Amino acid sequence: MSYQNIHTTIDSEHACALTKDYIDKLKTQDNGALAALAESNRNNSKNLIYILENLGSLPDSFNADWLIKLTNHHNENVRFLAVKTIGKLKSKQYVPILKHIVTSDESTMVQREAVSSIGRLRDKESIPIMTELLSNKDPKVVCQAVRGLLVFKGDPLVDKTLQAMANHENETVRATVNKAYFAKSNSKNTDLPHNETYPFLKNVVVNGDVRDILKFVPDESIHLTFTSPPYYNARDYSIYPSYDAYLGFLKEVFEEVFRITKEGRFLIVNTSPVIVPRISRAHSSKRYPIPFDLHYHLTQIGWEFIDDIVWEKPEYSVKNRIGGFQQHRKPLAYKPNSVTEYLMVYRKKTDKLIDWNIRQYDSETVENSKVADGFETTNVWKISPKSDKIHSAIFPAELCNRVIEYYSFKGDLIFDPFGGSGTLGRAAKNLDRLFFMTEKEKEYFLYMQSFQNKKSLFDNDTTKFLTLEQFKNSIHDTER
Q1: What CATH topology corresponds to 199-479?
Q2: What CATH class is the domain 3-181?
Q3: pTM exceeds 0.90
């Protein structure tokens, strides 16, 4: 049958439907028919994408000439899928074409796939090509070339070439090379299993400066920290000589939290910009961007930024800043009501993936810890704040519940270095987790302790309220 006759037959059959079964039929019958189908749809990108996505596995004898034509198609997705399909064939004859695509195609996505297709050959003859691509201006292409070369890790020339890229200007390239050759675990040598903690930390509240207390907490003891640090000079219980001193204090705390956190586990910090009132009408108030300034210090410590969650509160619950503007409407004086706070999510830096952390638990614990239906699907959490006559800024229970359920397993130890009214501890216990909290202010410590008399989750049998000295002694008692 001539190509023209095939083309006519294809047009007639395709008028009915373009299906996966139909594509499979053409693929197994005659490659010329499949090429004709693609040609008849050359101006229909949607159909070409469907054909390419449903080709499936290909025989060794597959003729890719029509795919090569599609690598010049005007549609980026068509070019990408054509290159990906050529890569499936794993034939050295297409390497020159793939190399040309890397250097000529305008799409990063297509270039990366061409490099990936070369890499999948696992052919030593491709090493010079991938080595040449390490100087590509696109770091995504470079990363793909690094991955292709890592197949030959152990080859002296490949190792020398890649190790020289440990100081590459792009952070992703550096991370890929360093993980392959210079990885250092943040995990300390400890006999304590990942899913366990020390008995003297279980369901304990300690009264004292968190920096003093954490000196006695062993490395890799906790699974999750969720806290809201004291506001900078915005409330009576948080007075610091300067903003830099305030940030320095938080850095000290989170350095210690980093040390006592198990490898690859999470820190979630609830903060928001804060306003320090002006001292007179001749001066202006000052607004400090705490979450953004703190972020730098956390990443310098070794915390890896994962997510930002916005806690949105009802407008009636926040201080009114817009009142003056509502009256005069003069530009430059606009000050919106602040109805949001940030939950900044960090993970203790590690080369291990999340799956490794999950595998440290038995299947029953993993199954029992699964989050139920109705979980929040966005990074905007609409939750009303809570306060009382003792503490003016306490965690809402719902906020604690979500963080605990989303970032820990049952039986894990949850830490709050600024315990406040103890909401996190009560939520942890209610969700079958353990808690460890520190609180400097005696008033709040006694307030938490008062819940014992109310038959709350802080009951006498399982929660210990200790001074720093008592806490130190409890450690020694355990070691005896």
Answers
A1: Rossmann fold (3.40.50)
A2: mainly alpha
A3: no
